[in-house]
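Subject: for your reference before the review

Hello V.,

The reviewers asked for a structural picture of the protein, and I figured it would be easier to keep everything in one thread rather than splitting it across files. Below is the amino acid sequence we used in the manuscript, unchanged from the supplementary table.
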Amino acid sequence: MTNIMQPENRHSNSIAKSGSYSGLGVWIRRILSVFAFGVVFYLFWPLIGELRTVLDLYKHAQWGWLGLAISIQFISYVCLAALNYLLLSPFSGKIEFWRLMAVLPAMAFIEVAVPSAGLSGVVLRARLLGKNGYSPEASSFTLLMEIIYIAAVTVIVSSAGVWYLLKSGGIHPGQLAGLIVILILLIIAGFLFYRIGLDKQRGLLWAERTVMQWNRIMQAFGRPAISKENLTNRVNHFYEGLSQLKRIPQIFLFGMAVSRVVLDVATLGACFIAFRYTISFGILLIGYGLVLVLSGLAALPGGLGLVDASLAVIFARLGAPGAVAVAAALSYRLIAFWLIRFIGFVSWQILEARA
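And here is what came back from the structure prediction:
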C-alpha cells in the first residue's frame, strides 16, 4: 500500500490534493447534471403546453391549503433545527435554539448565492457556529450526520411508498422490478455503512481499500494521491464524533429526522390538494424519493433547475394531470426552496450584524 499512498507532512500539499479531488468531483457532477437535465427537459417538453392551464389552476386554487403548506414547512424546518441541536449537544459550545434556526436557512441561501458544491454553506456554518464555541470539526461532523440521518429516513419513506403501492396494486410489474432493484441496492449500501460505523478498524480498512482504487485511477490521470496520514486523520475525526453521539438516545435523533422528512412530504401533498387533486399516498412518497435522487446529481445547489422540472415530470409520469403536476411542483419549490432562502438572506444579515 505504501507504493500507492505516499505519506505527507505538509499541510499545504494536503490542501492542494483536496482541491484537486474536489475539482474532479465537481466536473463529474456537472456531466451527470447535464445528462440528467437533458433527459428531464426532453420529458418536460410536452408539459409546456399545459402552462396556460396552470395559470387557470392558480386562479381557482384553494389558497388555504397553500397557507397550510407554508405552516407545515415551517414546522418541518423546526424539526431539522432540533436534529442539529441534538447533534451539537455533546460537543463543547453553546447556541440558542432560535439562533440555530437562523443559521440553517442562512446556509441554504449562501449555497445558492455562492455555488461551490456546498462548500460555501459548510464554511458559513463553521463561521457562525464558531462564534458560539464550536470547533470546525464539530460543525462539519454534525452536518455530515444530519445528511446521513435525513438520507436514511428518505430511503425508509420511499420504501414505504413502494410497499403501499404494492399492497394497493397501484404499480405495474415493470415499475415494481426497477424499484425493487433500486431499493435492494440502497439497503445493501445502508447495511454496509452501518457495519462500518460499528467498527473503527473495519471502517479504516474499508476506507484504505477504497482510496487505493481511487489513487490508482487518479495516478492514471496524473492526479495526486490521497495520503494515508490525511485519510487516517479524517477517519479518526469521524469516529471521535460518533463516540460523542452515543450520549444521545437514537430514538430522538431518528424522531427529528423522520418528522423533518414526513412534514416535507406533507408540504408537497398539500400543494397538490390546493389544486383540487388528491394524490395517492404511495405515489407521493415514491415521487419525493426520486426527486431527491435527481437533486443529488445536480451541479447547482438545491437541484436548481433540474428539480423544478423533474418534480413535474415525475408526478405526471406517475399519473397526476400534467397541469396539476406543474402547478404543485412550482408551489412546493417556492415554499420549500425559495422562501427558505429568502428568509436565509435576512437571517444571515441579522446574524452577521449581531456578531
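For the response letter, the relevant points are probably these. Residues 1-22, 298-303 have pLDDT under 50 and may be disordered. The radius of gyration is 22 Å.

Happy to draft the paragraph if you're swamped.

O.
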